[in-house]
Design goal:
binds tryptophan; PH-domain like; Tyrosyl-Transfer RNA Synthetase; six-stranded antiparallel β-sheet; 445 residues; alpha/beta
């Protein structure tokens, strides 16, 4: 079986906070080091446009989030790390999926429904202020996932519906056009902590209770000082249940350290002291990462290069899958299409194109003949029949996959190249690649 593909996207609005670090960044990077998985992490900057119309913010956030993941130990050579907008196959696939996704399905998306409900409550037009970007958000997200045929998508609970919609779109496409997509599964890690924020509710930008991940030491300390506690005095036993401070500590501490803190609570540790311990624990983990982070954001050019390189690698994966999907849907060159036959008016003139191999002195060669018996391609001489056969295989494989042949122009026409760049064959009719493509397409059909 091929390796499990795990994929997740990070929207580029804003900067990460401690909750993102504990709930997403840290576990994802740890999991990406495991064997048997291929990890895809990307910056969802097209998604950012749905929520954010401030170009400077989107750009800065792209830098900050990329630098954050790298500072936390993401190895861009071991995983695919890229920017969504560097992969044009993603929006291309989004359109193709939109053509088989039910509008009713999208009507039920939580974010869209919440916007409509709010408008109705306010007595406004139901779609007031709702963009097509918001409405199609789940389709773009499905394309992010399906363009790589990811098996698993680690997300927070709020995103599970989107993954289910992606499954639905994949299944509909497969049902109509044949099996092309893996049906992805959401992965919600129960053992990964959801971190409480300053006020004790879940740490979230929408509650304005976050602790930004890259606060300088002094500011981290004063943020921790603002965590709500009860009013028990030093010396009074404290409860760990419902204590945001304790939960935060636990998210960073070892089992032994956590047990020691539990005891300290029972022994009546003062809140000031407990906060100092929490600060020290978090700072010990973040300090080395913070140093790397500030180095990285200071060198945007280097991050840009890392993203471009990752984009090229990721794109190679998406290109072949999306090419297959285009063909399945009928977006394909016309070579090889025989419309007379479909109408029962086949003129009977043409035979199947074919390859012929022959010897020439010590060498082995092949020719490709079209249905009229005209030679359209002539190979170079090969030293042995196996090399000759392999070159024919290369051409057939490209034809079956619907890929363009690698060619370059030569003084007397064009040359067809193998993957290693060596010349396999030359066009017989100097300027015309069309008859070659036509013959190969008919062979592949
Ligand atoms: N919508 C996700 C979020 O807000 C981000 C995202 C975009 C994503 N595309 C994705 C997550 C694909 C997983 C897979 O968190």
């Amino acid at each position: 079986m091929s390796r499990q593909r795990v994929l997740t996207g990070i929207t580029t609005t804003g900067a990460p906070h401690l909750g993102n670090y504990v709930g997403a960044i840290r576990p994802a990077i740890a999991a990406s080091g495991a064997g048997g998985v291929e990890s895809f992490f990307f910056l969802a900057d097209y998604h950012a446009l749905v929520k954010c119309g401030d170009p400077e913010r989107v750009r800065r956030s792209t830098l900050e989030i990329a630098a954050s993941w790298l500072a936390c130990g993401l190895d861009p050579e071991r995983v695919f790390f890229y920017r969504q907008s560097d992969i044009p196959e993603i929006p291309e696939l989004a359109w193709i999926l939109a053509c088989s996704a039910g509008k009713g399905l999208l009507n039920r998306a939580h974010a869209y429904k919440a916007a409509v409900d709010a408008n109705e409550q306010a007595g406004d037009d139901p779609d007031a202020g709702v963009t097509m970007g918001l409405f199609l958000y789940p389709v773009l997200m499905a394309a992010d996932i399906l363009a790589f045929n990811a098996h698993r998508v680690p997300v927070g609970r709020d995103q599970v519906q989107h993954i289910e919609m992606a499954r639905d779109m994949a299944a509909r496409f497969n049902h109509h056009y044949g099996e092309h997509f893996v049906l992805p599964e959401a992965q919600v890690d129960a053992h990964v902590a959801t971190l409480p924020g300053l006020d004790g509710r879940k740490m979230s930008k929408s509650y304005d209770n976050t602790i930004p991940l890259w606060l300088p030491e002094r500011e981290l300390k004063s943020a921790i000082a603002r965590i709500v506690t009860d009013s028990r005095a030093p010396g009074e036993a404290k409860q760990v249940e419902g204590s945001a401070l304790f939960e935060l500590y636990q998210a960073f501490a070892s089992a032994d350290e956590t047990a020691a803190m539990r005891e300290a609570y029972a022994d009546g540790i003062g809140w000031g002291e407990a906060k100092q311990r929490l600060f020290e624990r978090i700072d010990a983990e973040l300090r080395p990462l913070r140093e790397r982070y500030y180095q990285l954001v200071g060198r945007p050019g280097e991050i840009e290069e890392i993203l471009r390189l990752g984009g090229r690698r990721a794109r190679a994966v998406a290109t072949s899958l999306v090419a297959e999907v285009r063909i399945a849907a009928g977006l394909q060159p016309l070579f090889g299409l025989r419309w007379e036959k479909e109408r029962g008016a086949d003129d009977g003139r043409r035979e199947q194109p074919r390859f012929v191999t022959f010897r020439e002195g010590e060498a082995f060669r092949f020719k490709l003949l079209d249905g009229d018996g005209t030679v359209v391609l002539e190979s170079v001489p090969f030293a042995d029949p196996k090399a000759c056969g392999q070159s024919i295989g290369t051409l057939k494989k490209a034809a079956v996959a619907g890929q363009a042949l690698a060619t370059r122009s030569a003084p007397d026409g064009f040359e067809v190249l193998a993957a290693d760049g060596s010349v396999i064959a030359r066009g017989a009719d100097p300027a015309r690649l069309g008859p070659v493509m036509e013959a190969l397409a008919l062979l592949a059909a």
